[in-house]
Amino acid sequence: MSDTGLEGAVTVRRHAARPHRTRGQHRASWAAELTPILSGTQRRYTAVVGSAVTGASIVALATAAGMPSGEPDPAASQAVADIAALAAEAETPEESEQATSEAATPGEPGAEATAEQETAEEEERTSPVTPQAAQVEWTAPLDSVNITSLFGQRWGRNHNGIDFAAETGTPVYTVYPGTVKHAGWESGFGNLVIIDHGDGVETYYAHNSEINVSEGDWVDMGDQIANAGNTGFSFGSHVHFEVHVDGEPVEPLGYLDEAGLSLG
């Protein structure tokens, strides 16, 4: 209400607690009251937005009580706009960047940039591995390989190895590291060397003219263990070679091929 002083003149009463407000007229902007609260603070963006929503709700409710149903209140709309502007100003650059990154979705520029950055970081942490060629683990027993007889049936019984042509005195090498199990005369084998390679695998070198190792010796791959000859049951100088696995002779060419040495 208002009091009448002079005839036709109206005395305007001001709000006792907030003199900048005028009763019966539009309300002052809420921004003027919230500015001292938000100014100079380090509140997080979420707290500011929460305050803005709460303040806007209070304004809307208070205004709705004095407005006719269905009629918008310009003061309430202005208050919401002012609070939203202050909230935006209170947001720090770091929070803005974080919000943008979190809001990015696949297919948007922000998401693509983040994916590219993660890919680049992953590539920096991963060193390329250069594949290496397979190493040959076994070597040939002679400098020159010429196979004259294969594994299988011969003369009514099984020929348990393969024969290599070799002149008497030709160096004979061990095909793989191991321990000398036998070095001496052995019936039809003549001068025989047997190398134990471990895991149940043994190799035989027969008909030698001379043996250069002793039982119990350790030999590396390619070490000379004997000289080729024509001793034992033999019809000419050569090297008889066998591979035994768990005490049984196996086809040498197939085994050597699986071990990385192809003599075929």
From TrEMBL:
CDD domains: M23_peptidase. InterPro entries: Cell_wall_metabolism_enzyme, Dup_hybrid_motif, M23ase_b-sheet_dom. It comes from the Bacteria. Residues 1-27, 88-137 are annotated as: Disordered. Residues 12-26 have a biased composition (Basic residues). GO terms for molecular function: metalloendopeptidase activity. SUPFAM superfamilies: Duplicated hybrid motif. Residues 98-117 have a biased composition (Low complexity). Residues 158-252 form the M23ase beta-sheet core domain. This is M23 family metallopeptidase. It comes from Glycomyces buryatensis.
